[in-house]
Write a structure and sequence with these properties.
Radius of gyration: 17 Å
Structural class: mainly beta
Order of helices and strands: EEEEEEEEEE
Number of helices: 0
Distance between the termini: 44 Å
Strand order of the largest sheet: 1-2-3-4-5-6-7-8-9-10
Shape: globular
Mean pLDDT: 85
Strand content: over 45%
Largest sheet: 10 strands, antiparallel
Number of domains: 2
C-alpha cells in the first residue's frame, strides 16, 4: 500500500492518500487542527480553549468527546460520545504523581 502525504507551507499535513482514499486536514489561523475530512466526506471538527487545549471533537455536528482542564492545564475530565465521563483526580501539584481515573456516575 502506498501512502502519499502532502504538507502545507507550515509543514502541517494537508492530505493523506492511502489506497485511493484521501483525508483532508484544515487548520485554524493559530495552527490548531480545525477539521479533518475522511474519504467518505465525513467531517470531524475540533474546538479549543484560549490556551489551545482541545475541548471537544464533533462529527456531523454532534459533540463526540469533550475535555476539561484545571488551571495547570492537566486534564480534569473526558466525556465520551455516550455521555460517560472519566475524571482524573489526585494529581499532586507539579508532579503528575498519584493520578487516578474513575467513572463519573
Amino acid at each position: 500500500i502506498i501512502i502519499n502525504k502532502v504538507f502545507d507551507a507550515y509543514n502541517r499535513i494537508d492530505t493523506i492518500t492511502q489506497g485511493g482514499v484521501t483525508e483532508d486536514y484544515d487548520y485554524n489561523p493559530d495552527g490548531t487542527l480545525a477539521k479533518k475530512t475522511d474519504g467518505e466526506q465525513n467531517n470531524t471538527t475540533y474546538s479549543y480553549d484560549a490556551f489551545k487545549r482541545l475541548t471537544n471533537t464533533s462529527q456531523a455536528g454532534q459533540i463526540n468527546t469533550s475535555m476539561t482542564y484545571d488551571v495547570q492545564g492537566n486534564t480534569l475530565s473526558v466525556t465520551d460520545p455516550e455521555g460517560h465521563a472519566t475524571r482524573k483526580c489526585g494529581i499532586q501539584l507539579g508532579t503528575g504523581a498519584g493520578r487516578c481515573h474513575r467513572k463519573i456516575p
